[in-house]
Amino acid sequence: MIVLLWLLVCGAAFAQPAADGGEPDANFLPPLVQPLPAPVRQYGAPWLRSGQGEGVDWDGLAKSSGMFLAIQHSFRIATEPGTREGMAGPFWKGYMQAVGNLHGWADGDPFYVNYVGHPMQGAVSGFIWVQNDRDYRVAEFGRNRLYWKSRLRAAAFSAAYSSQFEIGPLSEASIGKVQRIYPQQGLVDQVVTPLIGTAWMLAEDAIDKYVIERLESRISNRQFQSVLRGFLNPTRSFANMMALKLPWTRETRPSPWSGELQGFLDAQKSGLIQRPTYDAPLIDGEFGVASGEIVVNARAEALEMDGEMVPCLGGGTEADFRVNPEWQLVADVSGCKLLGLDKRWSGDTLTYMAGPRWTPRSSSRWSPYAQVLLGGMKVTTERDRVGTLEQSTAEVNTFNNFAVKMGGGVDYRMHPALAFRLANLEYKRVGTGQQNAISDGFSMSLGVVLRYGTW
């Protein structure tokens, strides 16, 4: 699916289209373009036409996301025998089994599917939102409130689309019921798809502004410009095709085939074109005190099981809400795959916790913190699993026990909206006396922090 996406996006550029720029209305001057010389009128409209106040194009959003969903499920049905087999039998019984069987982190897919393919899905759905979010769709990467608010809204839609794709009415759980079958039960996709997908969007936005646009101003070959836009921004280009647009379309500048791109870039370089922006709010300190944060992290743990330390690799997500400048309330959901077990055993964990966090330097570049979280830990282990079919037998142990963890770390702020979690060290204690259950352990994680309320 990943290779197919890239080929569709890049290959489309080799067929020269008709000019899609068109001549702007000579009697219309968008409010975002300065009333300066004629080139500004010619090259500023219609690509910077203001959509402020028009809201979301829900009809366009439904059509584009519906087409994307149809392509994904068609690909699954065509290439996955297990999905075709799972479509037989009672619908509601199978669907409820699939949803109710979700646990742990890993879902049996290869690394490139979970950590490349699904983030690309998250980025495509995010760009579909951006296309239809008319108040924000002309925002460009940079330190401005318009852009970061736009991408936060896109991340929310990406999370909703991902949840629907995994467990919704038209999902993997309803079409094929794959989660009811080992080893597809993990929650990794629900976390990775929107969060790493949003990071993928940010990367494509930065590449479009600082790499593609600069090369376009120096290399005038139209075919090269089209391939460049597709190859270096594959998920944006695929989202364009879901809206029945040419893959190299941009809301912020003309098409390479319009004959007007070079003039637009020259006018922009001369400072003749204004872009929409919102005044940044006053913030407390250089990086502000965020009203909340969303964190995605990779996590390595060492957990004690029956007197032996067992490694566990996975990740998770956090959401926090600030109570005052020094205190936050945190919700943390994470999971990992147990490694180093006896060859007859496999297993995973799912941890869900909440509690207070102390942040003494919440507005500085370096922000240390300490926290204590309470909740639960679900551990699932299986022995003698044969195959992946529903009728395969295995000894399954599941424990869900009270857990507490304490520790701390430090964040490094790159921007009022973005920080990196450089270190997070924690001790975890799990209340249990059962065999093959985890009693305690240590974890270390690194992550990306999206801060809101500072822009």
Give an overview of the whole structure.
Helices cover 35% and strands 27% of the residues. It has helices at residues 2-11, 38-44, 58-79, 81-86, 91-100, 111-132, 145-167, 188-218, 222-232, 234-242, 261-269; strands at residues 292-305, 308-324, 327-338, 345-358, 366-383, 395-415, 418-430, 438-452. A hairpin with a 2-residue loop joins strand 2 (308-324) and strand 3 (327-338). Helix 2 packs across helix 11 (261-269). It is globular. Mean pLDDT is 81; it is low at 18-46.
The number of helical runs is: 11
- In helices, the fraction of residues equals 25-40%
Radius of gyration, in Å, reads: 25 Å
Number of E strands: 8
What is the number of domains? 2
Q: Please state the overall shape, judged from the principal axes of the Cα atoms.
A: globular
The end-to-end span amounts to 37 Å
**Major sheet, described briefly?**
8 strands, antiparallel, barrel
Main sheet strand line-up:
1-2-3-4-5-6-7-8
Assembly type of the shown chains?
A: single chain
Runs in which pLDDT lies below 50 for 5 or more consecutive residues are 18-46
What portion of residues belong to β-strands? Answer: 25-35%
| Succession of helices and strands | HHHHHHHHHHHEEEEEEEE
What structural category do the secondary elements indicate? alpha+beta
- Mean pLDDT across the residues is 81
